[in-house]
């Protein structure tokens, strides 16, 4: 009973959420400092970093397919007390994800300028992009390893390990940025190239720490020989959940990449404004995102354990907490956002544009919160194809298609693009709400449990009959 109680506590929403929140908050805080430092190089450098990060996020979906699917399967297997299967899933995911990351690293080192040019980056930014993409992109294998290791560790219920690692990584990154940008402590002033180098070095150190934690995350420690393990059946389970997640994630990331390309066509002012807004927007949903990620882990564990009623109610508890927090945060940013942006840039055109976008952000964030909570909950029970389908439809037509039509073709600019992003969030949120209320996968789980119970009763009856028959 003690072990069961400690396991329930381990997967409580609060214990899962607060380390994720602290990790995300400090990453945001340090990321803001990072952006502030890069802005001391130039606004063009900020635009290149924002654009490149969208590219990296798009490519990350190639290995997020395996990492995300494995995370959910790990939580489900642990919930159903299949610890060895969870361990095997983690090992398989690590190997596959690392291989994909290596391929992407080679690609980005080989053709950074061509990729940036193909994505319509303005000519004046190409030389900076070539340097930044080749260095940071060359470390994509580290990003892949961090992604799968962090996901696997969190879904065992240990959210503190990735939190501490992320904090250390970002502090090292900021210190190295300071050294390379300002030439402090005798370091050379390498500008944006120095920022890229500090990014790769800090990720390398974080990967080493996460790998150490990963090896001891399961009941039976993972050793070097275990990395030869491969189970086709379990890998198929990962892909069944993971490939729709990958497509879903790719839909969002590629829509954002397309939007950044539209903004690049509109001009560097719009592109830089969006980059600064990305930094401010992150503050709005930090706690909401942390709760949504925590509830995904919790629901996957409850679903694996057959506790479908608790799983169903969990998402509404998260929405009751998350929505007010998101609204309060968004309103605070409306009040103080322009003053904060003044720390980054003195360009009045950028500041005026961001002033309008701050009010639109107040409408955007509740829709995002609904999508994060309900979408993650649907994914946790394996209903990933539904979230994939609504993402493909809404993001391709509303977020991307209408953004181009209204923002670029008809000339309404970034304001119209933001309006399309808002519409996309609410449309997907409404779809996800009604899907969750339908309880399709939860009812399927209940039916499976009922069949398993009936089968066990039959087997027990046969055993009792067999034991009684000699006496007859």
Automatic annotation (TrEMBL):
Transmembrane segment boundaries: 12-30, 55-76, 88-111, 131-153, 165-187, 193-218, 238-265, 285-303, 315-337
The keyword Cell membrane belongs to this UniProt entry's keyword annotation: yes
Predominant place of localization: membrane
Bilayer topology: Multi-pass membrane protein
Keyword annotations of the record: Cell membrane, Membrane, Transmembrane, Transmembrane helix, Transport
Cell membrane keyword on record: yes
InterPro entries found in the cross-reference section: MATE_fam (IPR002528), MdtK-like (IPR048279), YsiQ (IPR047135)
Signal peptide: none
Source organism: Paenibacillus haidiansis
Database matches in NCBIfam families: matE
Coiled-coil spans in chain: none
Protein name as it appears in the record: MATE family efflux transporter
Compartmental location: Cell membrane
CDD domains tied to this protein: MATE_like_8
């Amino acid at each position: 009973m003690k072990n069961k109680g400690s396991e329930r506590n381990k997967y409580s929403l609060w214990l899962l959420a607060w380390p994720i929140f602290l990790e995300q908050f400090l990453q945001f805080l340090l990321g803001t400092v990072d952006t502030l430092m890069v802005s001391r190089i130039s606004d063009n450098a900020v635009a290149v970093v924002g654009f490149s990060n969208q590219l990296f996020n798009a490519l990350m979906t190639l290995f997020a397919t395996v990492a995300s699917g494995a995370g959910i399967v790990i939580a489900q297997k642990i919930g159903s007390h299949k610890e060895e299967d969870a361990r095997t899933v983690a090992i398989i995911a690590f190997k596959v994800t690392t291989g994909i990351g290596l391929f992407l690293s080679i690609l980005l080192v080989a053709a950074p300028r061509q990729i940036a040019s193909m994505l319509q980056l303005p000519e004046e930014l190409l030389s900076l992009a070539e340097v930044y993409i080749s260095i940071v992109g060359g470390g994509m294998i580290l990003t892949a390893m961090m992604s799968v290791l962090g996901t696997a560790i969190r879904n065992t219920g240990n959210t503190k390990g990735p939190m501490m690692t992320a904090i250390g990584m970002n502090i090292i990154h900021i210190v190295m940025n300071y050294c390379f940008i300002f030439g402090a402590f005798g370091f050379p002033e390498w500008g944006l190239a120095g920022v890229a180098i500090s990014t790769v070095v800090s990720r390398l150190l974080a990967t080493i720490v996460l790998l150490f934690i990963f090896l001891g995350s399961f009941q039976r420690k993972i050793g070097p020989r275990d990395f030869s393990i491969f189970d086709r059946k379990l890998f198929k389970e990962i892909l069944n959940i993971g490939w729709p997640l990958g497509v879903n994630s790719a839909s969002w990331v590629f829509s954002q990449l397309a939007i950044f390309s539209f903004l690049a066509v509109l001009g560097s002012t719009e592109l830089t404004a969006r980059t600064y807004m990305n930094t401010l927007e992150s503050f709005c949903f930090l706690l909401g995102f942390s709760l949504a990620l925590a509830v995904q882990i919790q629901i996957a564990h409850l679903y694996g354990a057959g506790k479908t009623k608790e799983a169903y109610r969990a998402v509404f508890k998260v929405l009751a907490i998350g929505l007010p927090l998101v609204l309060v945060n968004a309103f605070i940013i409306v009040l103080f956002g322009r003053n904060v942006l003044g720390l980054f840039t003195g360009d009045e055109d950028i500041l005026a544009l961001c002033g309008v976008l701050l009010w639109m952000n107040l409408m955007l964030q509740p829709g995002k919160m609904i999508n994060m909570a309900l979408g993650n909950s649907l994914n946790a029970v394996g209903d990933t194809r539904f979230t994939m389908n609504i993402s493909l439809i809404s993001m391709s037509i509303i977020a991307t298609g209408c953004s181009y039509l209204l923002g670029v073709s008809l000339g309404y600019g970034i304001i119209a693009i933001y309006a399309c992003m808002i519409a996309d969030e609410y449309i997907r949120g409404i779809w996800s709400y009604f899907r969750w209320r339908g309880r399709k996968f939860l009812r399927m789980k209940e039916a499976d449990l009922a069949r398993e119970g009936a089968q066990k009763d039959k087997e027990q009856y046969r055993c009792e009959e067999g034991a009684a028959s000699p006496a007859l």
